[in-house]
Amino acid sequence: MDFSLPSFSTLFKKEIKSVIGVDIGTSTIKVVQLRRERGRVILETYGAIALGPYGGVEIGRATALPAEKIAEALKDVVREANVTTVDAALSIPYSSSLVSIIKLPAAVEKQLAQVVPIEARKYIPVPISEVLLDWFVVSGGKTTDPAKKLEVLLVAIHNDTLAKFRSIAGDAQLVVSFFEIEVFSAARAALEHGIAPVAVVDMGAATTKFYVVERGLIHESHIISHGAQDLTLATSRALGITVAQAEERKRKFGLSEAGGADLRRSLELTLSPLLSELSRTITSFEQRVNQTLSGVVLTGGGAALKGLKELTQNRLQAEVRLADPFGKTAAPAFLEAILKEAGPEFSVAVGLALRRLQELG
Length: 361
Hints:
This protein is of the alpha/beta class. 35% of the residues lie in helices and 27% in strands.
């Protein structure tokens, strides 16, 4: 322990605070520790741990582990990544929440606290007392036109889900400042502050989340039931190799020529339904709002697949880029290439830590 006195120049500075963002997915847990120093966000450490082995299945497979097993994995990754803070923010899976835009008469704007819980009953299939409810006005606020509608983003998380994640954090001896639905965290880390609508495609192990972000707000969201583990399982069957071998080949070669024609064909065939659904979803959105998306951002662990960006760009006929959340942090130059490649998988964890640093000021 350091008992040395601070220098005179640091006596009047605020204490430098480190925070950790924790993203608990179905196949991995990701952690990112950041601190703010002299106006810059510094990356202190990051790490990921596969959950498969904790559930007796292969790395890369989606799991449904009990809270104590998840807590065990979280403690392991915190230790292995040399995390030095307990000040944490945790993500809540999109599948465990409800995110919806509701339209209300502009006249009720001052009574939203009374009106929204009543209106929410139409959208939430359980009693309101069983969920944590939050909302904010997306558009149409502060208008004097009685014909105008308020667009309100409604967010609900089941109390049981919050209790589970509180328990996991407590077991891992982390102090959680807030919980946030993963799509909001990913958007914060993956996007710049542009005005035009952008599609975010977040490819996890079991599912792919699609959402449209405009002016920093989420306007549209869907879950598509295709994920990165589908690629691994299809490759295992097509090439007659074990799931573990298929996962290794997928990660090493992806859609590159080096992996061979059979691997590439298997991956392209498996990706085809996902890309078709994405194309339909984007076309439907653009036609409905009569507006063209400015681009597509790929994020999530599945987005790291070599060649996926180029294939997606070709199929969707849109500008596609990979999320670069670590681009919003300062890190040693020799890590730049590694962080760019790993970035999409850590978007949620980075987004959580960035919000916590904003809160600390």
